[in-house]
Amino acid sequence: MKQRGPTDVYLCSAVPDGGIYHYALSRRGELTLLDTLPLPSPNYLIFDGDTAYATLSRPFRDKETSGLIRLSVAPDGALSRAGEIIPTDGEGACHLAFDEGDLYAANYGSGSVVRIGRPPVLHEGNGPDPIRQEAPHCHGVFFSPDRRYLLTCDLGLDTVFVYDRELNEVSRAKVPDGAGCRHLVFSRDGRFVYVENEMGCSVTVFRWEDGRLLYRSTCPTRTYRPHDGPDKGSAIKLSENGRRLYITNRGENEVVVLSCRGEKLRVIGRAPTGGDEPRDFSLLAGERYGIVTNQFGNSFRLYRVRGFRKNRLVPLQTLPLPEAICVTERPGK
Questions:
Q1: Full-model pTM
Q2: Of 128, 260, 293, 302, which has the highest C-beta tally within 10 A?
């Protein structure tokens, strides 16, 4: 379906006095700030029709526990609170998944995954890096295409866990030691899973077989050029046709474009993010545009997606936003 009017774009500013910034993105690539919903340290946002959910990393005074909040989406795209803050029963909530009334959260700090309203499932163990992997660190929760399974990336354990919807473990699979798996996406045909490794700056490819992950390969995404800061991957997004993966690399501060053919990946493009610590990236407005958020750069950059192979990201403008951390568009407008 072609986008006829402006696209509603939302960015989370994860400072304690931050919030969710609502922009209109025109067909000509112009951004206009429409409104802001004040929230304490929002760091992830998902939509379900006229409802949205946001994780709040530190919403409770004098407590480490994270929370989430349900939001109403008005016809004009404005967000408003639709209830009180709900504890995630863990620390450092950073990711959500929702389907048919079931809401799941990943708690990074406490290394747990939770189905909201039920006790969390705690992971145990550690990885080879004594600083980053001293304990479990759940970083993302994702449904399988048939919605039967929930996959959880644990950066601290270099492991992707597969659960049923009741959070009973079905299987688990390892990425390379010390790679630190963070987020994942399924191929459009559901045959492969692409796992973004934060610490390894790489993508691990698994074959998906009804609740089980079979390791196939790992593709590096860094250039190894001299630069300031440690290398850390963050976001992974797949184009609608399933032929392009977009990865953000911190340290090198780039959006990396990969050609994607089943289990075969190849880097075909790179674009500077115009700021430090790119955290998230999204394709917008029918994939004509993209936005990357620079968390430590306190900014976000708008690109036009160009080229027959959609491997060129042409910068249009870079705008300020304190601790810009998450970007998404309103689906199905």
A1: 0.96
A2: 293
